[in-house]
């Protein structure tokens, strides 16, 4: 058997893009299948040394711009397991369902709303026992695996993971792993508003794990059962909610563009009225052009006062906001208690990791002066896992390795994640860093001994320039923030 795999001009095995990304994630230590030595667990993933940095950097960028750099938004970090009454009041226990269908022919199980839609009573061809036959799609969709119309009834399947709190399993021991981070912001609304004396409009932000027992998990980390979210609830005057929805949809779109996402791959799509969630008055999706087509990255919804009203009713606790200036239409006097309305930008952190990887992935064929092609991750320096790799030109020269180690420590002292590497020829080390998305390499060589300068190599165009050792940290820091 030949080991020759078909390669393209850049020297990369010719595979669909998603397969290349999954292979790169494993090869470089971004993302591994969970419990791999036991055959792996469906839909569970572990973030390796580069993946954990990338995910944290994305989440930190969101936190910096959403919480730290604004006067009107504060953060919380709530418990994953909350009172089950929260999920009863929010509507999740009764209604957080997806329509589950089984294919009677190939036995695959799928979500009716995500299946290929062909139109009610359309005639479709599919294969059965080696023959092509024609069937009628009574429900307007077909099996995503085999295209058949031989389908079970739709059953409503609740996506929440159930478990028991305490050692004894009983009717009232049931608790749920949260399926979204949002509800903690609603149930803490008054705690946060009063302790921080916040005035409308203001927001509460949270990041963290959420869990959904998804019927179909797909596209690597795009849809998994355990994932991370970055959500913010922006409480505003009811009559200003349309304006704030407009504002937040633009802010969120620009956040991705500011982190280098190619504009041609990103769009805002308003929801049609028939696809709106039951709690939403209006909604936009930020969509990305993934290798399989346009799909959701983030939702920005006008949730009105739906959540606060439901929690107020179910808990029996008043959750109204007091505005001393607002004139009460009933009394004609200033001073009014009311429920604010809410705009919610809800983004997926793990889904963003995939999007940034896909968007940054690039291959270059060999060019003049460079005989090999290369794979390069053009990640924005702010989210790149490693900001600078410090490389002694030769490993055997102790002066060079000592100097390089001294430089890498200067980066660490300034909280810049830098990486020291002396293994293999310099070209291979550059290639490894290109695949890791490291925007800058600093090479210590013979000339460093003479004039205390090093080479600064840029990942994107491989340009090189000499800079002073003493300026290396400041230059990389400034370029990372550009
Ligand atoms: P979908 O329609 O794709 O199931 P959704 O509209 O139910 O998603 P939301 O409840 O709005 O998703 O969640 C907000 C964000 O959380 C999504 O835009 C997505 O980025 C992320 N997200 C939701 N479910 C998953 C999942 N199973 N795996 C990874 N990320 C997810």
Give an overview in words.
With 482 residues, this protein is an alpha+beta fold. The protein contains 13 helices and 25 strands. It has helices at residues 17-28, 49-68, 84-89, 92-95, 182-187, 189-195, 241-258, 306-315, 349-360, 398-413, 426-436, 446-451, 472-481; strands at 31-33, 45-47, 73-75, 97-102, 109-111, 122-128, 131-137, 155-158, 162-164, 174-176, 202-211, 226-236, 266-270, 282-290, 293-304, 321-327, 334-338, 341-348, 361-364, 374-377, 388-392, 418-420, 440-444, 453-458, 464-468. The strands form 8 sheets. The chain has a 7-stranded mixed beta sheet. A hairpin with a 2-residue loop joins strand 6 (122-128) and strand 7. Helix 2 crosses helix 9. The radius of gyration is 27 Å and the shape is globular. The model has no long low-confidence stretch (mean pLDDT 95). It binds adenosine-5'-triphosphate (ATP).
Itemize the secondary structure elements and their pairings.
Layout: H1 17-28, E1 31-33, E2 45-47, H2 49-68, E3 73-75, H3 84-89, H4 92-95, E4 97-102, E5 109-111, E6 122-128, E7 131-137, E8 155-158, E9 162-164, E10 174-176, H5 182-187, H6 189-195, E11 202-211, E12 226-236, H7 241-258, E13 266-270, E14 282-290, E15 293-304, H8 306-315, E16 321-327, E17 334-338, E18 341-348, H9 349-360, E19 361-364, E20 374-377, E21 388-392, H10 398-413, E22 418-420, H11 426-436, E23 440-444, H12 446-451, E24 453-458, E25 464-468, H13 472-481
Parallel strand pairs: 3-11, 21-22, 21-23
Antiparallel strand pairs: 1-2, 4-5, 4-8, 6-7, 9-10, 11-12, 12-18, 13-14, 14-15, 15-18, 16-17, 19-20, 23-24, 24-25
The structure holds adenosine-5'-triphosphate.
